[in-house]
Amino acid sequence: VDEITHFFSLNKVKYLPTIKNTESSGGHKINFYIGLKAISEVITHEVELKNDSANTSQINIEYTVPQLPKAPTWAKFLLNFKISGWKFYTYISLPLLALAVGYSLLLWNYYSLSYFSLIYLISFLMIAVSFYFWLKPFYEAIDKRIGIAPYWLVRLSVISAQLRYVRTATKRDNGQYIRALQLVVYQAECPICSNRVLIEKGSNAQRGRLVGVCDESPREHVFSFDHVTKKGMLLR
Question: Which of 127, 162, 167, 230 has the most CB atoms in a 10 Å sphere around its CB?
Fold first, then answer.
């Protein structure tokens, strides 16, 4: 009961439904009814801190990969395939091809000034923008070796997942390892309050980076994230 009351008080609920009854007098029946019970406003929402969290300049964190999440069946073909040969050249040529087609349609619309050319240009731009947001996480993972996995690539039970561009055991003729995309989940325990830390995109001063963010204090308990060493340190 105390846990339920604590949960509702966190969500600013002032009353809880409760079963009440009338007093019995002289053999009369006792009537039960549903009433409201006020939640105490003096409830404190305290988080137990670790004893060694006073010196925040030396707080470090270690990340783990509990298990590799399963992608939806229809999206499995996007993962664990080796990007080499024609796949690698397709990856490079797709943006260039889209840019060339868009530029051609723009010139066509400029010189012809026809209704159909304008429709084709708008349709192409809409499709190109859609594909940009659809493929951006994959290009980011390939370029930076890791990125945030799109929400449509993971199951609903997974809150935050990442795409890694990992090395395989196969080498190219030039001696470099062939890489493949892999779906992973990095997480850790907050060294300050012992709550869960998940990986998110950084903002403001941390823009362009992936950072570890605590569930309990997402504004203050923010940590750096290195997917190679699986370690980080307090940023705020």
Answer: 162
